[in-house]
Records
---
Amino acid sequence: MAVYKRNYKGYTGRLTQRWARFLILTRHGYGRLFQSRFLIVFLAVCLFYPIGCAAFIYLSHNERFLMLMRIPPDSLLAVGGRFFYYFCIVQGALAYLLTALIGPSLVSPDLVNGALPLYLCRPFSRGEYVAGKLSVLMALLSLITWLPGLILFFIESSVAEAGWAKDNLWLAWGIFLGLFLWILVLSLIALAVSAWVRWKIAAGALVLGVFFAGAGFGAAIDQVMRTNYGALIDLTQVVHTIQADLLRYDSGTDMAVSSAWIVLAVVCAICLFLLARRVRAFEVVR
């Protein structure tokens, strides 16, 4: 529009509150992601196991069904730490695949197309940009991880004897914190990789490689050096160690829980550092 015509007007609509501005990126990110039918189908598949677990919980407390099928109640897996530990493993693996699928497309398009200056020239900080992109992944991953886990906990508390929920409240905390830490690590790694690798296919492969390579190198270090410290670079085992401790289940690992927490903190710090280096309003080309 030509300036001399003087018929332009400033924006007079409702302004988004400061604390909620990062949700603008989340809303538009979902609008683009859910155009993929494959993503919707994959999310539906991710809910099969929680539905099966809910059916198992209900039927395991149905005395008539157990008598009809001649199943001794003591032969069934108790709904406790072991039950929810395996739930965390299965849903965590699905969350890992979902992250590799959608994570690389969150930051790299903005860098490739030079869109970051358009974001950051507005009253929009780098932290809000990262929070907006991070919430896209974490909200989707929450739908298939700790949210179904807590629903299963409440289903068990409704069919179990009185007082079960109060005596096992630590299970709900372990489910939430264990899976929340897992999706936080996945999301930060995906954003960091997406910020540094601009080709989506290569970024997705690198997200997968971070965990597979860590497991392989960790096992090789343990074999060659005859030590147990190689497992510290296997992020999957690190998180599973923390989850097993939160759920009070002996997973058979030799890793110290304190070491697992330190590794997790270091990985998150590295990812935030990498994001801080790349998410800028300008880029210096030498």
---
Amino acid sequence: MCFSPHEAGFVEALVDLMCPADELTPGGVECGLAIFIDRQLAGAFGRGERLYLQGPWRPGRPEDGYQLPMAPAQYFKHGLAAAERACAQLHGRDFAGLDMAAADLFLQAVAGGKVTSGEVQLDVWFNETVYPLFTQACFSDPVYGGNRGKVFWKMIGYPGLPAVNGLNMTKYRGKPFPGAAAPLSMEDFS
């Protein structure tokens, strides 16, 4: 919905690297994480509908929040392109073409501020935009595309929608929720 085929390839490689398949979970693509990120950036959040985007653009403090002249989807794509160029410079290929070990080292370098770009501060891009979208994709209600099969909810023992019921919150505070093995999402109540 938001990504070009090349951008989608980067995001799919990214989520599969950050959520590799193992005995507990399928890989990130199979869990729907790339779909969630694509939908978020194609929607109101990605368009920056709740953000002030008119300027003037002065450097802000971290506590000021988002202070860029572009919507989150534009910023994500701009950072993705800069990361791809940096990856090509360092490794001679796109991020999706790297083996898992090289891709992991590259992402760690990006997150740690060791890979730079003249256009985008890549560590800020990764740590404040990419990683939060990834974690939201993992723990969102499956109706939004991520957390397919409620795999992450099951892993942490989160029961889904019943957990937000006030009586259940009081009754089971600090105790295991009996329905955590079979969490319920918005789709289960429709």
---
Amino acid sequence: MGKRLIFLLGGARSGKSYTAEQWAQEHGKQVLYVATAQAFDDDMRDRVKQHQADRPDHWHTLEAPRQTSQAIADFQGDYDTVLLDCITFLTSNILLDLPETVTQTEANNITLGQIDALLDVYNQSDATWLIVSNEVGMGVVPPTRLGRFFRDMLGRANQRIASHADEVLLLVAGLPWKLK
């Protein structure tokens, strides 16, 4: 099996990370786990610790909440599988770094620039990549400017990744639905 880009989407607790991790355990020999979450409170610190405990010890972990593509490109290691979890946190991190005066178009363009950089690193690698993200376009329109910015930024990022992916899965209640 040659390298592939597999994109896993779903809502919160839909099983997307679990499915990606299972795929990596079954098919990957040298796995690079790229984490984009930041632990700003005790609850998130507990969640990160649980995720770390659930991963096999032989996986390499790269904490890369910002400039993720550069961090992956700079990582020194021989891996056949990259599991990036997740685009949702990466997008949130980008949004939190933007000035309050940013426009939606500017925010989208900054996000898509980072997604394109990730796709460039993928194209230069020989590894299969599993990218995890939340699907946020099936709910109500957020009532705040910040919420709308985030939803639109993530929606555009998801579209960009899906258009380049070899396989796209939507997870609902732990069940994968193959979209592409």
